[in-house]
Amino acid sequence: MSDLETVLADAAVAAAGWDRSGLPRTAALALARAALLGMDRSEQYGGRGADAHEIGLVASELGAVCTSLRSLFTVQGMVAATVDRWGTPAQRSKWLPELTSGAVLAGLAATEAGAGSDLSGIQARFSGSSELSLTGRKLWVTFGALADVLLVAGQSESGPVAALVATDQPGVVVEPVRDQLGLRGTRIAHVSFDAARVPAGNVLARPGFGVSHVLGTALDHGRYTIAWGCLGMAQACLADAAGHARDRRQGDARLGDHQAVRSMLGRSWVDVESARALCVRAAEQRADRDPGALMGAIAAKYTAAAAAAAVSERAVQILGAAGCAPDSRAGRFFRDAKIMQIIEGAREVAEQDLGEFVLRTAVAGR
Ligand SMILES: Cc1cc2nc3c(=O)[nH]c(=O)nc-3n(C[C@H](O)[C@H](O)[C@H](O)COP(=O)(O)OP(=O)(O)OC[C@H]3O[C@@H](n4cnc5c(N)ncnc54)[C@H](O)[C@@H]3O)c2cc1C
């Protein structure tokens, strides 16, 4: 068995329990042992230089088993990619080996009460210069209750700033969130900062770049792996629904003998393959350093999240009570999938972005 296969087999057994009680730190260490955490970083920093297609396939395989585990892979990868892109050589040497080894677990803290889809409303404040002090409250931080460090976006005198902030210090209060709709394994927390210390060396890029550039890199990386993760969810739900439709009999007929059930399976297959096509296209765009890669990731995430939501809904329908059982994968993905249409660019925001892109490019005939 390969390391990835071992991770997948163990996660398949643990996923329903993680959904009830949250992922333990050992789940992150298992990803690290299999060389999956930050796998697209270079070997120098503990990664393995994986290309976009490889990361996508891993996200899809993890997504097919456990959205929360795939989210851990996503968040740790987002922070590592951002440090790599915007960090100084000293910041890369300090943080990347710790992120790829799982010695340090990271979260991304952007959302606030007044700043969700539109992050221009961020109020958290960094003040000072040689050492900064952070005050503010961040909401819905995935793995916020487990993370050692958070990539926090805030304002400063010189413009938006993004910095790595240690969570185990006075002035940081972590309030775990439980029983939300989905992603229940992801140890979500709201996190308050009251004059928390932030060494100047933890600031990524120059002030002013914190949201547009630093968070931009993180969100692009996140959307890309979420897209592939959603493809995995949709594929898994289709497989569960198809198996059940083939095997389950009611009266004289198999479920799959009913036209209505076949239609649901047919529509689901088209949704899965449409999502796959856009995920593969997004991977090719990244490999080619295509300037359209950013939009490609938005389109892939938009389509794959819609596929995960639609296919999981139909799967639960076809599975009936079996889809509503506590350990049902399709039932769990049905709850997780709606969240995929809200985070990292809500569905309607993606439509606006894609519409603007079409106006810019389609008119030019590209
Ligand atoms: C499980 C979970 C995990 C999360 N993890 C993180 C995390 O790790 N880090 C983090 O910083 N945040 C995280 N978030 C927060 C998430 O990023 C926000 O929920 C998301 O950005 C949407 O913001 P909002 O909830 O404030 O919704 P709002 O911005 O208030 O939007 C609500 C709805 O209004 C519509 N809408 C909004 N803007 C537009 C527009 N311009 N055009 C058309 N329609 C629009 C959309 O339908 C949208 O769903 C998480 C949230 C959840 C639920």
**Highest-level CATH class of the largest domain:** Mainly Alpha
Structural class, by secondary structure, is: alpha+beta
* Residues in helix, %: 40-55%
Gross morphology: globular
> How many individual β-strands?
10
Can you name the CATH architecture of the largest domain?
Up-down Bundle
- How are the strands of the biggest sheet laid out side by side? 1-4-5-8
Radius of gyration, whole Å: 21 Å
CATH superfamily of the largest domain: Butyryl-CoA Dehydrogenase, subunit A, domain 3
Q: Could you say how many structural domains there are in total?
A: 3
Major sheet summary line: 4 strands, mixed
Tell me what you see in this structure:
54% of the residues lie in helices and 14% in strands. It has a 4-stranded mixed β-sheet with strand order 1-4-5-8, covered by helices on one side. A 4-stranded antiparallel β-sheet has the order 2-3-7-6, with no helix packed on it. Strands 9-10 form a two-stranded antiparallel ribbon. The protein has helices spanning 3-21, 25-33, 52-63, 67-86, 89-101, 210-247, 259-287, 293-319, 321-324, 329-340, 347-361, and strands at residues 106-109, 125-127, 131-141, 149-154, 161-166, 172-176, 189-199, 203-204, 249-250, 253-254. With 366 residues, it is of the alpha+beta class. A hairpin with a 6-residue loop joins β4 and β5. The chain has 11 helices and 10 strands. It folds into 3 domains: 3-105, Acyl-CoA dehydrogenase/oxidase, N-terminal domain (Butyryl-Coa Dehydrogenase, subunit A, domain 1), CATH 1.10.540; 107-206, Butyryl-CoA Dehydrogenase, subunit A, domain 2; 211-361, Butyryl-CoA Dehydrogenase, subunit A, domain 3 (Up-down Bundle), CATH 1.20.140.10. The termini are far apart. The model has no long low-confidence stretch (mean pLDDT 97). The structure holds flavin-adenine dinucleotide. Flavin-adenine dinucleotide (FAD) is lined by residues 107-111, 116-117, 140-142, 180, 183, 188, 339, 342-343, 346, 348-349, 352.
